[in-house]
Amino acid sequence: MIDFNVRLGFTTKMVVIFSLIIGHSTAVGSQPPPNIVLILADDLGFSDLAGYGSEIATPNLTALATQGLSFTNYHTGANCTPSRGMLLTGVDSHRAGVPNIPEMIPAAQAEYPHYTGTLGHNVVTVASLLQSSGYHTYLAGKWHLGQTPDKLPSQRGFERTVALGDSGADNWQQKPYLPIYERANWYADGKRFSLPDDFYSSRFLVDKMVEFIGGPPDDGRPFFAFLPLQAVHIPVQAPQIFIDRYTGVYDSGWHELRERRRNNAIALGIVPADSAMVEMASTDNWHALSAERQAYEAKRMAVYAGMIEAMDHHIGRLVRHLKATQQYENTVFIFSSDNGAESLGRAHQDSWVNRRALATQGYSADYKTLGLEGSFNAISPSFASAAVAPLSHYKFYVGEGGMRVPLIIAGERIVMKNQLTDAFAFVTDIAPTIRNLAGLDKTSDYFGGRKVEPMIGHDLTGLLDGTQTRAYSAHEPVGFELAGHGALFLGDYKITLNRGTYGDGEWHLYNIKVDPGETRDLSSAEPLKLHLMLHHYHNYLADNQVLPVPQGYRHEIQMVVNAIHGLLRPNVLIGIILMLVVLPFVIATRQRLQKRPK
């Protein structure tokens, strides 16, 4: 019996019913293997796409969504390296060797082999599986899963690559975005690579992917293309033509934008009609700012919007290339983000101290050139609260704003077209879904002569063809831990523990299906549910050998400590500058939180 509670259109229902009556399988595996394009944005917030409630123009992604299924309850890791590891392997981040980004792992944890922050050899990537089954495999974009020769993507299943090894880099030139790196580390097919003079990240990466794919291959083999873009990771930069489109759009501030996006998301069916929001502690009072300060903050957000539209524009170029070369109809597209919006942008980006620190790196924070080559920009925590609307928290935290992101799976051969699903899904589901789309058998315990971790994610193709309405039962727990923050999902429920600057160190219980904004803590009302889920979470910790963080751990400060340790010998000044950049933000945030009424 098929449950049509997922928002199925009448035509789609008839297709599914007719297929079942005549005995014709809608499974992708019954057709020739498709091309698969996996596109990953960086630090994109839940409501940053037009189809999820944004005012930002993303027509190409909107068009793709009409050809497939958009997920409104999809979750990923709360920062990039764990998410990327789980995305490509279907294995929990701790077992895959990537429990955190290496830049934030404390020394006490780094002694353990599964806490290196690089992808272990005990896991196999979906690229390796596809390559061994006859697929061409390509990567163009951010890797950040290891930079030793054996851990570059050219040794992890990708036939052709151009890859950024670091957590981020400049979008206009080959330049590190923070002094934690001596240079921007780019690689092509396993060797160090120099970027062209006319580089802009989204354009260049799509150019390279178009080059790799070319026309229909002479050998008739399908391809797997992984396009992990830099947009919209710090530094937030965009061509002027895209920035100009958003002049004046954000003049009314972040409070109004967060409310407007919530209302848009409700109207689109992305969140329930009565979805409430909390005001995050990091959000400043827009109306208390001077007119000059408001203009500067609005420009920062305009650059952010411009970078997203530029990303969408270049994704459109890739789609058009596939159509022009008659490869589009046999291609499945998967689009998502590695985590929620970034909140580490300085509240006073153009302060005297910050300007001096940026100048030592060759960056400017001037209003006139914001977002252009030579500028450094990031949205503030206040506008980040709008980027994740109507959710709570951001990247690095396990609130919904850090973990719930857009997911679109689309293509001519996807049955569920122009539909939404609120079925829970997790990042470890992507690899087994790709495996099934490609018609591959489930992996054994061995690959390439070595024992590998099994995929723990669920195949989502039953949602794509309309034969299922959920991927997980109400009794299957899904855990996640990052730097002492904890979360566990069970049916429609979620428990969270957030530490640090924006956390209280306490466990909370939410029904995220009806309350995605995490506004109503059910811990007191449903204590048995809380205790059951805590029991599952402690089992998760034990099963995945999760290590406790040291007393007083803060991810912002740990990055500074690790950077100083790595750079102190060659350059003491760089470490001091980095402390001047990061520590004032931490101190100011703590002071602001202490002044808030309890």
Describe, in plain words, how this protein is organized in 3D:
With 598 residues, the protein is an alpha/beta fold. The protein has one domain: Alkaline Phosphatase, subunit A. The protein is 32% helix and 13% strand. It has 17 helices and 18 strands. The strands form four sheets. Strands 7-6-5-4-8-1-9-10-2-11 form a ten-stranded mixed sheet, sandwiched between helices. Strands 15-16-17-18 form a four-stranded antiparallel sheet, with helices on one face. A two-stranded parallel sheet has the order 3-12. Helix 6 packs parallel to helix 9, helix 8 packs parallel to helix 11 and helix 10 runs antiparallel to helix 17. The longest helix has 34 residues. The radius of gyration is 23 Å and the shape is globular. The N terminus and C terminus are likely disordered.
